[in-house]
Design a protein that fits this description.
Chain A is of the alpha/beta class. Helices cover about 40% and strands about 20% of the residues of chain A. Chain A has 8 helices and 10 strands. In chain A, the strands form 3 sheets. Chain A has a 5-stranded mixed sheet. In chain A, strands 1-2 form a two-stranded parallel ribbon. Chain A has a two-stranded antiparallel sheet with strand order 5-6. The radius of gyration of chain A is 16 Å and the shape is globular. The two termini of chain A are about 30 Å apart. The interface of A and B includes residues 134, 150, 175 and 207 of A.
Chain lengths: ~210, ~210
């Protein structure tokens, strides 16, 4: 788990509550420990803390619950030191706010997930998930997710790895939407949810697929 | 109503069943009449038939339930002959199938809706709606829509016009998602629904927004 913000902590707490062994990571041990303590205090579940460096050596399922720039740094900074068979699970959305108006940063690869993939060793798998879950809901582990989330990835194996882990979280249905190019849609759907949140004055807009 | 295909007929039947006076249009009167007869035979509701030429002279709410190319032709072919205050309601999605794999055609304006807007007289309003509703469901008026649909448009008035008409259809919640640029997301969501349909072997995948 990379990411000590509210979303990362919320995800860590949900996974830990589902009895997944979780290590929260940050660039510094101090920030990782602070995050672990906050998770213990708010959600009452214990998680380990470690530096990103150590997480990359120890863990083979790593959530990128950080801003896109942080995910790029993490990937570029650790080059080929990932363990064989590692799958990264990308939660990033390339949002920008221009005068308070949310937009999506246009990336040459088409999406943040594909932007990360282009910088990643081919030995490491990449899936994208939980991109459309509202930060407000994910960050409050006492709120059930109560939605569908879309999983795409660079291979069926990467998607299966993400779905196996996230499948342990209650009240969440995971839908496999194929290759990473689906992230172009998913990242825009986050923007759509933010537009709906602003327009309808909520912080909880999220998606369900009917007819499946 | 421009569009005599199954989707256009399904929409016309739903509106007519909700007591909206509907005229189905086509380039030729013969095809328009055929469509009106099919609607009468399958859904048991009567609708008028007319050429697109006549529809543009008579109607001030016109659904573009045609392929994108047809919508472009309709707009370019009729220039500034639209009635003052007309609002076009765009249902098009710029899908392409490459070796059986569905993709979205990249348009310089970002979306089909914005592509149409760029070709339209400023005196005519444009909204986009029902882009993500499955063709299979829309085309069978006996199936309730049972979903949320997103409405965007070039002005609050255009969106309100679309929402007022479509709001008469039962089992459909309309969500205002702002300016036409939202169509970039909506058109991709149609692609996502098609991917889900193929992967989960249904023809009915569509969206609901939770937490609103």
């Amino acid at each position: 788990m990379g990411g000590t913000g509210a979303e990362g902590r919320g995800l860590a707490a949900r996974l830990a509550a589902a009895e997944v062994p979780v290590v929260v990571g940050s660039r510094t041990m101090e920030r990782a420990r602070e995050a672990a303590e906050k998770i213990q205090a708010s959600a009452g579940v214990a998680v380990e803390a470690a530096t990103n460096e150590e997480i990359i050596q120890r863990c083979d399922r790593i959530f990128l619950a950080v801003p896109l720039e942080g995910a790029v740094d993490l990937i570029l900074g650790h080059g080929d030191r990932f363990r064989p068979g590692t799958v990264l699970i990308d939660l990033t959305v390339p949002l920008a706010f221009t005068g308070g108006v949310p937009t999506i940063k246009e990336l040459p690869e088409g999406s943040a997930a594909e932007h990360l993939k282009a910088r990643l060793s081919p030995a490491v798998g990449l899936a994208a998930a939980l991109k459309t879950v509202p930060a407000h809901v994910l960050g409050h582990p006492e709120l059930p997710l109560d939605c569908d989330e879309f999983v795409c990835g660079d291979s069926a194996e990467s998607r299966a790895a993400a779905m196996e882990l996230l499948g342990k979280i209650p009240a969440l249905r995971l839908l496999d939407v194929g290759g990473l190019e689906a992230a172009r849609t998913l990242e825009r759907m986050t923007l759509l949810a933010i537009v709906l949140n602003k327009r309808y004055k909520v912080r909880t807009a999220r998606f369900r697929v009917a007819g499946l």
